[in-house]
Fold each of these.
Amino acid sequence: MYEFRSRGRTLALSLLLVVSLVLATLEVRADSWGVVRVGLGSWLVPLQRLAVEVFDPLVATVEGLAGIASLRSENAALRAELAETQAEMAAVEDQLARLDSLERLVGLDLPDVEQTRTLANVVGRQVGFEFHLRIDKGLEEGVVPGNPVLDENGYLLGRVGASSDDFATVIPLSADVEGLTVLVAGSVGVLRPQVGSELLSLEVVDSPPIVAEGEDVVTSQLSVSFPPGLPVGSLVGEAQVVGSVLRGSVRPFSDPQRARAVLVVSWPPGPNE
Amino acid sequence: MGVVVLQTSVVGRLQIGGVSPDLVTMVVAYAAFRLRDNGVILLGFFSGLLLDASGTSVIGLLAFVMTLVAWGASLTREQGGRGVLVNALRILLLTLAGIAVHTVMGIAFGEWSLAVWETLRRMALIPVLNFVLAVVLFPLSNRLWVPSLK
């Protein structure tokens, strides 16, 4: 009896295995065999929907409990990812701002400046006893010490202090001890930096003019180092006349801390310019 | 059919380490305590066939695999009554054998790409999940088990 059952089991097993293999072979070889799947599968779909409806709250609860454990680590990972994305966005925004500055510099219309212009990116800033900017153009691009440097609005920013083959340093007006010959209300004066202040000190020696707060200050044609007529800044507060000297403070239009790109002007012009 | 429906709709969502327990194998293993040999083998075949139909794999592959698992379950029926750990180990081995055969058959029928690490992960995790589930469900198996059922 037991042997008979054992034979029956072996027979059933063999038969079902063969049927399985035949089904699989037909599925692979016969193109229209998918009808069987559709037929069988269509029976299951309503039942699967019903099961989901019934068990969904339970599954959601279990998922929620299981999710709590991984939520913190996932949160931390997401925060790190967010920080990274924000840093990338900041970098992109910085690049866009730099591009905007460069585009404005290209389209800059300067008074009486027909000389060679060189666009340069500000690639570094040194803050210390001698504040200066570092730009990515140097002697190879024709940037030499003494060249005037303008910001994206065409305001005078400073001058090139030192230059190597592929980079140069720019001394802003507020850090330039050499002073600057300027014109204010038709009179020639000298601008010098003030220690510990972003304002420049103005002195007009000859025939002090009558000036008011907000009076524009531009480079003078008497200046050897800078082209004439470049906007420098505006008068802040009331100027005082001491003897035959007018003294006041000037706030520069340019802000070296915010400059991303600058325009270096070849000045004084060469013999062919 | 109910187990296949649960496996393909509900259990699939309860994932641990990216895999779900294989409820169908467990039910076939437990069914061996109550059904005779041919009944278990037929149960394995049809449950596998339904799994095939509900998924996208080649029809017949899981039927083949589950038939062999059911045969294994009927052969190890007596061991299933020897205690919680032995029964859990039996289910672990049945699950492992099922996945291994399915992998081999899948490759033979062009169903599986040879994603080695994914295969190894499934082979490692699903049997362990079933092992744990078998330990938890031991009171149930203890009630189902009938000595000397042939």
Amino acid sequence: MPEIGTMINVRGLKRSFKTPKGVIEAVKNISFEVKRREIVGFLGPNGAGKSTVLKMLCTLLRPSDGEASIAGFDLLRDAKQVRRHIGYVSQSGSTSPEARAGDEIVWHAQLYGIDRNEAKERGKHLFDVLDLEGQWEQKCGSLSGGQRRRLDIAMGLIHQPELIFLDEPSTGLDPQSRANLWDHIRKLREDFDTTIFLTTHYMDEADALCDRLLIIDHGEIVGRGEAKTLKSQVAGDNIKLTLRDNRDTQKAALCSESIAIAQPIISGNLVQIMVKDGAASLPKLAAALNEGGVEAIGIEVSQPTLNDVFLSLTGRSLRD
Amino acid sequence: MKQYFGDSYVVFLRSMTLSLQNPIWVLVSIMQPILYLALFGPLLVQVAGVPGFPVGDSWQVFVPGILVQLAMFGSLFVGFGIVAEWRSGVIDRMLVSPASKNALITGRVMRDVIMLIVQSIILIGVAFLFGLRIGPGAIFASLVLVGLLGAAFSYFSYAAGLWLKSEDVLAPMINSIALPLMLLSGILLPMSLAPRWLQIVSDFNPIKHVVQALRSVFRGEYLNFETILGLFLALSVLSVAAIVGNLAIKSQAR
């Protein structure tokens, strides 16, 4: 295996689907690179095209156009070599609920040409590393959500790939299991030197895990860089006002016009106002509200989040 | 080629183990042939005296039909299993491995065929208790024919499952194909009892010729036209089915 600095190199990747309503361009001309040992995340709302890109890079979906090299192999011409060198952990899981966890991982290893004894040894080691001790004989269906996701990751690592793709790794897990899963994912790089490429629609996941982010919306990359840099590019801070009822929100939004640097966002009895400098704007806002006869029952200043980054790039919230 | 067989064996081992670990599946599989024979056999024995009934002892006419029915209904429904496996991510996970794609289907078909052979042996054994008498050659030949047919139906069913990806669509589709195939195959009542036009229609049903081949094998006639035609058609149907099945699994990655 030649030592390569660039693990993923994608150039002009496109994918369209034919539907009865016409052709849908799910992925429009995407290019990016991922270096060895990086953890890079695709952040975007559901339906943005994240999973479609991931499936193309894992040889599950043929690109309509463009090219890519994965772990040094051409995605289209050398798909079999690509498959040998990547692990893929899909959103929908990887195991039959009726199968025993240990059996499933050994059979999976055998599909990579690994012999049974070696597979058992590697599988047991991965179970230890991923906190699955004692689950070897358990049926996959009886594991908890977090355990099953870690089993999926163990399955994806059994052939010791240099690169692993995680599709929405923490979806459906409770907060504790998520934090635990993130620890495990970070450790993969330390323990196995694995390069990790993941998709997520959770900004906290992107914040917690990724060295670098690619922000994707409507099949296009609209922003890229470290989370810190992206956030610092967002012009200002956020002031969140909580009001007594919905009638006050319009008035409050009107009052904030002089200091806001973007159109205030109203949701329920909340108004979100983007300002240049949170601390300096607060007294001005208070005065303006007073003048307008609006009484705020809560006021909160916050630094920009990845959601604000997404908002400033697309004009929409990640949660929409 | 070596990889194809190796991968098929792993997939076979996996699906066989999962099936055998399910006691209800094992019980149903064993009871099925016995129920067919016990509940339907006595009825057909009564019909055997009717003019136009094919030559041979009534059990020799009846058991081949039940064998083919077993092959059809056992194998046509395996597609449900693959829809469930697809839903749980197993199929995608295997497609991302370097394993031969064709092997992913073939290994599962191997499980189905072996299970069908075991069921067929049980069925023939129970039929002996009812009074069937055939030689070991006939048993072997009939297992070959049933195995070929079962493999073909399994391939078709997996292909349908992979394309439709929905149990709700798969069930009516299988029924609407299986029912005319079965009625026009002379399984339940021999086609020799049918009016002329129906007989002509049924001539286009390959299953009917396989049933007739089985019946002539059961009479101890191995090398007549019927047997050779049945074997040829069973092999042809299997070839088409295998191609369709392999296309279906390959179409999953595009």
